[in-house]
Design a protein that fits this description.
HIT family, subunit A; three-stranded mixed β-sheet; about 30% helix; 8 helices; binds 5,6-dihydrouridine-5'-monophosphate; binds zinc ion; nine-stranded antiparallel β-sheet; alpha+beta; about 375 residues; single chain; about 20% strand
Length: about 375
């Protein structure tokens, strides 16, 4: 039922928002922010992580679970995952005997990429040059794996709350001969948009957000980070090129790679400053599919972008669970995307650890 006499206010009234990348909807219930909070609000205990620890299998010089030894690497280091979810050259299952029992072959390869030799250094605490080395390695990996595989998924799963098993800064790269579900959905939605409007969806979206400003978290000449209009996670963000149509990571210019390194650092400092903790999230890159399909198919409806999906809700220890209604019906959020963007945007650009150090220096 609707109340025709009340003016709609997106910060007050529940509504559903459309996610054009996935073609689904999220329920936004901002009035719930007014309910009293009964739970605790705690600071997270910051664990001391040893900078150099050759017992950590991701460290330079360490021996991994497989018995293989890492070299004494000084920048990034990539190795084949010792416990991969996908292996190359797997046999094809036979034909399905019934449409309800279908399967297909799934070949792939999984790699681990260490970001830095130090185990205690997270991305926001690295220099821009160190982040640029990571961006360059991502491009190298996409270039190589994209020759063979339809989809190369670069993703970083950070923090114990996200189920990350190792604090050493790293990401994973899973490549497959098939297009996984999320990029499959995004491919279809972007293709439809391009056919209808003649523009890549996310380029159009970035340009509208850049002019509107309401959902911007950080920006520079080449990149824009917004809490997307359709965000599901409380502080979810979308990182996109703002000017150019860029299909894949390897299509970035040199200056765009630099600008990307800068904006990642800026975003991640804000994330850490939000609850003064090393902010847990899953992030990953999406760009036009690769492999042999890229030679025959026109993928100009794609636009490169990264998703950041952080799990925290209201403090360093209180996370949002996607359970109950979300599992059985539809995603739901309380804080609006605009409120989350405003909160993140207003945070300092200096990392809280740096601020503490600066403060200590002043006292001395
Ligand atoms: P997490 O991002 O989930 O923490 O994963 C680290 C990956 O590193 C994980 O996929 C791999 C695990 O299989 N790994 C190795 O390949 N060798 C090791 O000796 C330890 C961890
Ligand atoms: Zn995407």
């Amino acid at each position: 039922m609707t109340s025709p006499n009340v003016q709609f206010d997106s910060c007050e009234h529940q509504h559903v928002r459309y996610n054009p990348l996935r073609g689904d909807w999220v329920l936004v219930s901002p009035h719930r922010l007014k309910r009293p909070w009964q739970g605790k609000i705690e600071k997270a205990e910051e664990k001391e992580i040893e900078r150099k620890n050759d017992k950590n299998p991701l460290s330079p010089g360490a021996t991994r679970g497989s018995g293989k030894k890492n070299p004494n690497y000084e920048s990034t280091y990539v190795f084949e995952n010792d416990f991969p979810a996908m292996l190359p050259d797997m046999p094809e299952p036979g034909p399905s005997s019934h449409p309800l029992f279908r399967s297909r072959g799934a070949s792939g390869t999984c790699r681990v990429m260490c970001f830095h030799p130090y185990s205690d250094l997270t991305l926001p605490l690295m220099s821009v040059a160190e982040i640029r080395a990571i961006v360059d390695e991502w491009i190298k990996q996409i270039e190589e794996l994209g020759q063979r595989f339809t989809w190369v998924q670069i993703f970083e799963n950070k923090g114990e709350l996200m189920g990350c098993s190792n604090p050493h800064p790293h990401c994973q790269i899973w490549s497959s001969t098939f297009l996984p579900n999320e990029p499959f959905l995004e491919n279809g939605c972007q293709k439809k948009h391009f056919a209808e409007y003649g523009k890549p969806m996310l380029l159009e979206y970035a340009q509208i957000e850049a002019a509107n400003k309401e959902r911007i978290v950080v920006e520079n000449d080449d990149w824009l980070v917004v809490v997307p209009y359709w965000a599901t996670w409380p502080y979810e963000t979308l990182l996109m090129p703002r000017r150019r149509h860029i299909l894949r990571l390897l299509d970035m210019s040199d200056s765009e790679r630099d600008a990307l390194s800068h904006i990642m650092k800026k975003l991640l400092i804000k994330y850490d400053n939000l609850f003064e903790c090393s902010f847990p999230y899953s992030m990953g890159w999406h760009g036009a599919p690769t492999g042999s399909s890229a030679k025959d198919e026109d993928y100009s409806h794609w636009q490169l972008h990264a998703h950041y999906y952080p799990c925290l809700l209201r403090s360093a220890t209180i996370k949002k669970f996607m359970v109950g209604y979300e599992m059985l019906a539809q995603s739901q959020r309380d804080l609006t995307a605009e409120q989350a963007a405003d909160k993140l945007r207003s945070l300092p650009d200096v990392h809280y650890k740096q601020q503490r150090e600066d403060q200590a220096q002043k006292v001395m």
